[in-house]
Amino acid sequence: MLHDGGMISVTQNGAYLERQFSAVLKRSHNPKRRYQAQTIIISFDESEFDTSNLRKQSQQALQLVQHYIRKHFGDCQSVIAIQADGEGGKIHAHVVMNTIRPSGKTVATNRFNIQKLRKDFDEEMQTNYQRVTGHRWSDPVHNQSKRQDIHNLTTKSEWQYQLKELINQIKAKVDNIADFLKQLEQHSVTVTERQKSKAWTYHQIVSTKTGTRELKVRDFYQRVDKTTGEIKSTRGLDQSFSKVAIEDYFNRKKENKKEDQNYDRREDNGLEKVKTMAADARARARQQRRINEVAQQQLKEAIDEEKRKATKQKARLSNQEQRQTRRTAKSNQPASKTQRQSGQKQRRSSKEAEGPEF
Are 200 and 185 in contact (CB under 8 A)? Predict the structure, then answer.
């Protein structure tokens, strides 16, 4: 069922809506683009609409969805269909939006981010649900009870956490990016490049509650307003898991390893230098000891020589004193008879030699 001025209507058909969308497509810069529309399904919980009065509740649901779409996608064409599948089926809304605005410009795809859509629609329900229905909003998304087996299921968030742990473990074990990618591949994780080989996307086939399927996640991405520089959204694992960050990590690791090797080399050279200096010091000490020993020996010999000379001089003086003493003692003794007679003969002999006195 389609709306017409806020009321449920069945008079509009798909062909008419397609012609309306196509007319706007012709105003775009690329009329041959492959897709033209985005679709959203908004499903209401039984606590919000229990289908007890389907006609009334469908109109209330239409009013809420219409206000939300006009607030967040009022610059593009949209179609809203309210539906309840079968007996006891939940009320839900199918929304089809033209991705080309009447001005010919394209609606940015990031406006269809699922997290942002859920957040914005929760705000719509919190603000207008009670005003439209007359009942208090139950906020079923945040008040729902957790599954008992939630920890046994492999969810995308759990997979991303495990992937981060694996990446950090491999980074610590390897020394270059080639080995890093090879180790990831051995754990069934493949890496593809994007943004002209400036960024990565991680892929892995895992078993989930919906079966075995491939999960993938970007390394890191931020949408930034080019005018203001404001960060609009952030996606991916984290900046530390980006290609640039991991390349920088291994470059730093290589530089640190080289620095450690240089440090060890300097330590070895320093140790050899210290050993050489110690050997030189020991050699100088031995040489100095030999010099001291020679000097001491020479000094001892000189002292002994002085002692010998002093002893010899003392002995000479002592002999002279003894001779002098003997001469003195001899000169002081009286002459003997023989000596006196010898003296008299010498005097007579000298007189005879001189001749008679006149």
Answer: no
Check if the beta carbon of residue 194 is closer than 8 Å to that of residue 201. yes
How do residues 136-151 score in pLDDT, each as one tens digit?
Answer: 998 887 776 654 544 5
Neighbours of 181 (CB within 10 A): 17
Tokens (6 digits) for 42: 């908004």
The string of DSSP letters for 88-129 reads TPPEEEEEEEESB-TTSPBPPGGGG-HHHHHHHHHHHHHHHH
Separation of alpha carbons 342 and 332, rounded Å:
19
pLDDT in tens, 269-286: 666 777 778 788 888 888
User: In what helix (H) or strand (E) does residue 18 lie, and over which residues does it extend?
Assistant: helix 14-25
Angle between helical axes of 177-186 and 243-331 (0-180°, round to 10): 130
- 12 neighbors 93 (Cβ within 8 angstroms): no
* Each residue's pLDDT tens digit, 227-272: 888 888 888 888 889 999 999 999 988 888 777 676 667 666 666 7
Residues (pLDDT < 70) of the chain are 1-12, 31, 34, 86-88, 144-154, 209-210, 260, 262-264, 266-271, 332-358
Which 3 state secondary structure label does DSSP give 15? helix
Residues forming beta bridges with residue 7, ordered by sequence position: 4
Residues 6+ apart with CB under 8 A from 20: 77
Burial 64-82 (b: 16+ CB within 10 A, else e): bbbebbeeebeebbbbbeb
Q: What is the pLDDT of residue 358?
A: 44
- The per-residue DSSP string of 154-189 comes to --HHHHHHHHHHHHHHHHHH-SSHHHHHHHHHHTTE
- C-beta separation of 56 from 72 below 8 A: no
CA-closest candidate to residue 96, choices 43, 37, 14? 37
